[in-house]
Amino acid sequence: MNEIEKLRKDIETVLAHPMLTPRDFNYLSKRIYARLHIMISATTLKRIWGYLNDGGQPRSSTLNILAKFLGYHDWDEYRQNAMLPEEQQSDPVMSRKLSVTEELRKGDRVRLTWLPGRVCDIEYLGGLDFRVLASEKTRLSPGDTFQCSLIVEGEPLYIDNLVQQGRPPIAYVCGKKNGVGFEFL
After folding, report:
1. pTM over the 0.90 mark
2. I need a surface site. Which of 25, 26, 70, 117 has the fewest CB within 10 A?
């Protein structure tokens, strides 16, 4: 398997869905934009997957974006990982992380998702502090506040000092079994 085939396979693994129809490529385009705030057209994605055959090679800038979508710094880092023996390769889902104090600015909004069907939109307040804006199928409610320093996709999210409706602060875990996903809003 060449590096681009592996890249396609890894993206399908992260999405937990094969890329087979035009709708799948539109979905991936939207997911890339939600994560990175960078637009790749569905047509470009179709070319990379061979859904459209124009014989051209993908641009390095496009490959860089797809590698970033998987949590790598760029295409070169992805390729270096791909050349390692399989047991030494890093898992793209595990490598995508969000360091709160380094990567967020006050007012940034993030959507957290975890199984089964749980969604929670949060706002960064500064320091390690967050406020829940909206929530579906979780014990978190709009207005709740908590602290968190790191969000790692595919891992449980451990939050501290969760304050709900004036109750004493508690610790809480989101995505205990299958981990959480996150996207910028």
Report:
1. no
2. 117
